[in-house]
TrEMBL record:
<feature type="domain" description="NADH:flavin oxidoreductase/NADH oxidase N-terminal">
    <location>
        <begin position="5"/>
        <end position="321"/>
    </location>
</feature>
<protein>
    <submittedName>
        <fullName>2,4-dienoyl-CoA reductase</fullName>
    </submittedName>
</protein>
<dbReference type="InterPro" id="IPR001155">
    <property type="entry name" value="OxRdtase_FMN_N"/>
</dbReference>
<keyword id="KW-0285">Flavoprotein</keyword>
<keyword id="KW-0560">Oxidoreductase</keyword>
<dbReference type="Pfam" id="PF00724">
    <property type="entry name" value="Oxidored_FMN"/>
</dbReference>
<dbReference type="InterPro" id="IPR051799">
    <property type="entry name" value="NADH_flavin_oxidoreductase"/>
</dbReference>
<dbReference type="GO" id="GO:0010181">
    <property type="term" value="F:FMN binding"/>
</dbReference>
<dbReference type="InterPro" id="IPR013785">
    <property type="entry name" value="Aldolase_TIM"/>
</dbReference>
<dbReference type="GO" id="GO:0016491">
    <property type="term" value="F:oxidoreductase activity"/>
</dbReference>
Amino acid sequence: MSVSDLFKPLTLLHGPAMRNRFMLAPLTNQQSEFNGKASEYDQFWMQQLSQGGYSLIQTCATHVEAEGIAFARQLGIFSDDHLPGLSQMAATIREGGALSAVQLHHAGHRANPLLGGIPSPASSFTIPGVNAISTEEVERIRDSFIAAAKRAERAGFDGVAVHGAFGWILSEFMSPYLNDRTDKYGGSLENRARLTIEVIEGIRKACGPDFQIGWRLSIERYGLVLEELREITAEILDKELIDYLDLALWDSAQIVQEGKFRGKTMLSVFTELPRKGVRLGVAGKIMTAQRAGELLDEGSDFVLIARAGILQRDFPLQVKANPFYESPKTPVPAEYLRQRGLSERFINHLRGWQTFVTRGSI
């Protein structure tokens, strides 16, 4: 395929088609208000992105319960008080021609008590002195995801993306290392995947027929087992429970280092699965037009742009204008980001990435 193939539309199982193969990855930015309401900086960020040529724009990780907060100034969707700001974000994205999704998030055992979070571990050994949450509490969190999806629909978003990556609660329950439960949410792979499946199926039942559902999956760390994740993904694809899979890799080119799939690309482990009408996208160091095009050749239906989208808000338009476009190299000075419209809150968040903002730059 050529880079021009990135600009072909892509139909989804529900709702409108993607106008091209560029999706904006969910980017934590810590620029909302302390109560979870969208700030003027959130709105300006969405305004910039809406003109960037993406087919679908996801919000940052947006917590579905006040107690499930992970970061200071994290966007919230646990209260109707959040609806005005979310509605404005959805309208801005729509006016720019892209589809929109709220990424639904709960921090699980990583909820931050300093921010009012209540750690909710799957197991009693994960955090010293903190017991595993009860079956009833698991079901409450499940219902909070579903309620948040309904709220996103009311706000005018085209769909939601369920955050099942990076050790947050859905990923945590999937892990045999972090989940030693003996109820229906622990033990077998089927039981450990139950929370994820119930969230997705609950959203599909509660929301309209055109509402879109994505699922973000990561493989590394937190005791996750590649073979298990492939098995449960195969089931989700076969049943067409989602519209798109967002495969969050550290590097889209990474190679499996051990186990049954050793020597294969991590991406190929999933692109080889029959996916029926579900679309598969990948994130991970996609910094050039050529790499984005290569990933379609490797079996992806679309690509998720993260760091490159922060450095250049209109990455898709840059690629359209220049099939050999390459993102600026990181780290970059803070002033570079400031001149391109990033808020000080966002820039301060990026300073924690170590390799993004030039050390010592003011």
